[in-house]
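Input record (one chain):
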Amino acid sequence: MQALSEEKIDIAALSEADDTQLLLKLLSIIKTKNGSEETVSIDCHSAGTTFRFLTAFLSTQKGSWLLTGDDRMKQRPIGELVNALSKADADIKYFEIENFPPLLINGKSLHGGVLEIQSDISSQFISALLLIAPYMTDGLNLTLQGTIVSEPYIRMTLELMKQCEIQYVYKNSNIQISPQKYRAAKFKVEPDWSAASYWYEIAALSEDAEIILPKLNHSVLQGDAIVSSLFAELGVDTIFQDNAVILKKNSYVTDLFEFDFSDCPDLAQTVAVTCAALKIKAHLKGLQNLDIKETERLKMLALELNKIGVNAEILNDSELIIYPSEINIPDNHIIQTYSDHRMAMAFAPLAILCKKINIAEPEVVKKSYPTFWKDLQSAGFTISF
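The corresponding structure, as predicted from the sequence alone:
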């Protein structure tokens, strides 16, 4: 929004996470190279959100752009977004394999108009379209087809746009945005409820706990704030104060945990490992889009749980059943993360139960929570690399 706006959008408390800093760097390069006669390479590495948002953004920026990423990024489908943008008059070609990155994009003015997009793949495709919609000559009349996954992220996108004075109509499965411009605004980035989930897990696995998460509060934007309700069933109370959240261990743990994660897929790994550690049966649903993330999350989550003695079973490529099992982690066993930050952070709290745990690729946490290991140390964990 800041890159598109002709006015100043002040952003305070911006994250130091690798993905955020990479996007800032790439937007600076794009601004400098805008209108260049040569093809400019833009490398998103492993940042999926960055790649998807820039697919739409570069479609509107004058010049020739080669948008690429790492090997895993080249395995993550982008065709649904490319098809929608192409119908809005974008000039995008696949540089290697149909439906997958890298992309060759020739930026131009887009007309927009009436479009449809499958909404059961990734909400980021939809957010990418919404963010550029005010700058389409005909605006955007977007119909979401199928089951909507991660809908809170769509509403978060629209609410942030509204804070920059963009008007929209979201009714049923249709979103309408007329041609407008982002206006000057001041925005303070909220602390991350997704990151808070690992502290909920730590509280749940501890014999006793009182954890203060400063500056965190009720969120009207983040869907992952539902983690407080989920962990109420897993032995953790949440106390909201003016400028902090306090997590307290309680004695109640459900015998059967069931939940549909369609709106909050980033919480699935945390909850799955917690349920396994508490030896309660769990039925996690709505996991159909986990396998297009940093790794094939659903498969790898089940695999790593199975390796440590947990009976975890995948159903219909979208559900995970965890049966009460005794976790057994040999001294030299290494939890594989598959270059996925959430795998590392979800499994790390198991050290509370087994006294020691080895995590592969510990640096992957920099993607979203660069101070994770440092924060664990401050809470009394011993960390060595």
